[in-house]
Amino acid sequence: MSHNLSQDKPVVVGYDGSKSSRAALEWAAVQAQREHAPLRIIEAFELVIAIRPNEGRLDPLQAVRQTREQALAVVAEGIEAEHPGLAVTAVLVEDSPASALISESSYARLLVLGSRGLGGWTGLVIGSVSVQVTAHAHSPVVVVPADARPRAHDKPTIVVGVDGSKVSAQAVQFAFDQAAGTGAKIVAAHAWHSLASTYESALMFDQADVAEASRLVVAESLSGAIADHPDVEVETRLMTGQPARALLALGESADLIVLGSRGRGGFTGLLLGSVSQGVLHHARVPVAVVR
Questions:
Q1: Which of 14, 124, 153, 239 is most buried (most C-beta within 10 Å)?
Q2: Mean pLDDT per 10-residue segment, the chain (291 residues)
Q3: Which CATH superfamily groups domain 3-144?
């Protein structure tokens, strides 16, 4: 794909009027403006009941649709006013929310959702919509909590989960690209379970060996991205314990947590496993899931 075509790819955001989707919309607008990309706002309009039009009168469903379209247009105009120069389109899609967003992701550079929704996006993040979208989207997905706000610290921070897998490598690349665009520093996290406290037989495993192996995994995983982004500050954190808890602890003071959609070793089970769901469920900062 040519660079120009890539530049035309929009940041797509799912919107339903909820507090969480408004936070997602603002996050997506800032991201699109930073990347000089268009912003595409999608609202799902699911037809759950069929209403027979009254003879000679406006179809009640059509009236609802028009009202929703007008409200969405006002939202788009507000975003354009707040972000001069940003190209904004807003579309009311007749489809289920998950299906609409997965379809949109085929043409998106990034898909952004709120962590809790109402109406069309009900069930985020623990519900079926977010699980389906993060599992099946063709682009990276960012889930934004309703109370997401810039952190008060000297330098923005991006935490990325590293486990040496191919998908983890894509998450690392995404995290470094974000860091380069925002001036953020990278905290690369790798966690493993310490079995020695649980099983006596595990005492044959030398914890120092495990730590050294982990350090090598992280170093190898980061080397290419560091070479591509020499100006990005990088910190490595090796931890024992549950990966989801480790990422959440580091992410408490971060601006973004980045995960691969499938992992191994320390991050086994991403995305539909316990790590990603644990992080998405409890994170108070935006979480990016990269496939």
A1: 14
A2: 62 91 94 96 76 59 87 97 96 89 95 71 49 83 82 83 86 96 94 57 64 88 96 93 86 91 49 63 88 81
A3: HUPs (3.40.50.620)
